[in-house]
Specification:
Elements (H helix, E strand, L loop, with lengths): L1 H27 L5 H4 L11 H6 L1 H21 L7 H18 L5 H8 L1 E8 L12 E6 L2 E9 L5 E12 L4 E12 L7 H12 L6 E2 L7 E9 L3 E8 L2 E2 L5 E3 L2 E10 L6
Antiparallel strand pairs: 1-2, 1-11, 2-3, 3-4, 4-5, 5-6, 5-7, 7-8, 8-11, 9-10
Helix pairs in contact: 4-5
Length: 269
């Protein structure tokens, strides 16, 4: 009986030691510091690089916070053209934060993420022709892309504008050149991402008839990727000015262009 009790005590002691060891092992794994857990809202803008490096969960919270704020600001100002400088300033700290915490990606990974249909949430670029700023889409394929937008046509007819661009990778940006501009009757309202992409492909392969129209054909520029993941893309860019044979600027250049795009999956109402 006494021997049985001694064996039981030994087994109990072994169990306790094992449990303590498991707790110590768990405490040795990376955890979010207590101070970091209490950081929330706008306080996340001021987190240090050391805090971000020490906590995976904090980095994830920062990314989600910044993306949410960027979407909110962009959507609230999507169709306005009178406050672009102010909105750019509002977006800046959140974009800067995203850039700080963004995972490192190779150029091949970035190019792969670029592919597919995107929806423009906001941009500070000026547009000619009066497109519906709430109905601008971009479909990126290997080597080319289409900017598709709902625009007013002759006599108030609803038309889709299709501006094609070609691109080539550079070390820190994409070199772009507009190659064609066209329109077709219809609307993008209610189309899913797959349907918008299919329309761009149909235009590219000549299966959908379009009417060529004047546009920025031949104009070049650069497009950078500040941040990209599976559902959000933030790009910056510049447009190269066009000169005539006498050095006179015929199309002014643009710098400091900013674009916020969301990957398009389901239908947009």
């Amino acid at each position: 009986m006494k021997r049985t009790m001694r064996v039981a005590r030994v087994l109990l002691l072994v169990s306790v030691v094992a449990a303590i060891g498991a707790c110590n092992a768990a405490s040795d794994s990376p955890r979010e510091p207590k101070a970091a857990k209490n950081i929330s809202g706008e306080e996340l803008l001021s987190v240090s690089q050391a805090e971000l490096s020490a906590s995976v969960s904090l980095r994830q919270r920062v990314i989600q916070f910044a993306k949410t704020r960027i979407r909110q600001i962009s959507r609230a100002n999507q169709t306005r053209t009178d406050n672009r400088a102010r909105v750019t300033a509002q977006l800046h700290p959140y974009i800067e934060l995203l850039v700080r915490v963004a995972p490192e990606r190779s150029q091949a990974e970035t190019l792969q993420l670029l592919l597919g249909p995107w929806y423009s949430l906001w941009t500070n670029q000026e547009f000619s022709g009066g497109p519906n700023l709430a109905r601008i889409f971009q479909v990126v394929r290997e080597g080319h892309y289409y900017n598709l937008s709902d625009s007013p046509g002759p006599g108030g007819i609803a038309v889709i504008n299709a501006l094609r661009g070609a691109y080539a990778p550079m070390p820190d940006a994409l070199a772009i050149r507009f190659t064609s501009n066209a329109m077709l009757r219809g609307s993008l309202v209610g189309k899913t991402g797959a349907e918008v992409a299919a329309l761009a492909d149909s235009i590219e392969f000549g299966a959908t008839a379009v009417i060529p129209v004047p546009g920025p054909i031949g104009i070049t520029g650069q497009l950078g990727v500040l941040y990209i993941d599976e559902d959000l893309r933030i790009a910056n860019g510049r447009q190269t000015p066009v000169f005539d044979d006498n050095g006179n600027v015929t199309v002014p250049g643009e710098i400091g262009l900013l674009y916020v795009l969301e990957r398009l999956e389901g239908p947009l109402r």
